[in-house]
Amino acid sequence: MMHMTFYWGRRVTILFDSWKTDSWLSYFLSLFACFLFSVFYQYMEDRRLRLKLLSVSKTSPPPSAGPSLSTPLLLSKMGARNWSPSRFAGGILFGINAAIGYLLMLAIMSFNAGVFIAVVVGLGVGYLVFRGGDEGFVVVDNPCACA
């Protein structure tokens, strides 16, 4: 029977029926895998945001004092920029990152407290290592709640 509340224990099924832990060694290796997967999520998010920042800085027009800066909703997004290689790569990275985020969410939904802690600590460590110095720029979009 699936747990519907948090519990502590070494017996847990994570994501797939074949990923079951029945010993302390397999449990801790699974927690370590969840931790690494969470750190990798933050790494991929950093790569995606840096690619977006790089593509925006290369394609943005020089700043002007005209009314186009005050009315961003009226700017046309049609044109060659929509299918540029960097935009395509950004879309692929977004999809990969969204998939990783949802898999992490589903792992947490095993309701095992150890899995929850491993994922949250992994996200924190990944943010600290890969995205801790992001104060220099602001990115508005956010692919999922895990970011």
TrEMBL record:
Q: Which GO terms describe its molecular function?
A: copper ion transmembrane transporter activity
Topology of the protein relative to the lipid bilayer: Multi-pass membrane protein
Q: What is the lineage of its organism?
A: Eukaryota, Viridiplantae, Streptophyta, Embryophyta, Tracheophyta
Tell me where the transmembrane regions lie: 24-44, 88-105, 111-130
Record's protein name = Copper transport protein
Per the similarity annotation, which family is this?
Belongs to the copper transporter (Ctr) (TC 1.A.56) family. SLC31A subfamily.
- Classification via PANTHER family: COPPER TRANSPORT PROTEIN CTR1, SOLUTE CARRIER FAMILY 31 COPPER TRANSPORTERS
Which InterPro entries does this one have?
Answer: Cop_transporter (IPR007274)
Give the encoding gene's name: LOC105164599
Keyword annotations from UniProtKB, A to Z? Copper, Copper transport, Ion transport, Membrane, Transmembrane, Transmembrane helix, Transport
